[in-house]
Amino acid sequence: MSRERGTRKLPNAALRGPVSHALFRVVRLHRMLAGHLLRDLGLHRGQELLLMHLWDSGPVRQTELIAVLDSDSATITRMVQRLEKAGLVERAPDPADGRATLVSSTSAGDAMRAAIERMWHDLEASTVGDLPSTTLNPLMDALAAVEVNLSAAVAKPDRA
Q: pTM for the whole thing?
């Protein structure tokens, strides 16, 4: 495998993992751009995903958000608290189980939908740029396969 890739020279230690090195760089830049675009909306990374889920699902238990966003309880609790403080979500006891908390989008949260959809569109446009449409389907297939591989590796019992 060549050490040169585009304008980047692979470090010697990455020669045995060029795909992982490329993914690391791409994901870092994508997260950075998403962070900038979200900051313009007054949000932090991940908060838009929580709102998107609420828009699609309606009120959900906080434990569902933990599972859907593949995060831990403390992170989701802080995220919900920040969104609640900003007036974008509200929490209420679950009428079916008073021990559980339901989280729902407020009218202010709902009003963010168009801006978040625009931000997501801008992020996508910056990400794919002028890639031809004939490249996008194979790219999506390859990324789906990579996700399956990584999910299997993470789920291995020796990783727990």
A: 0.85
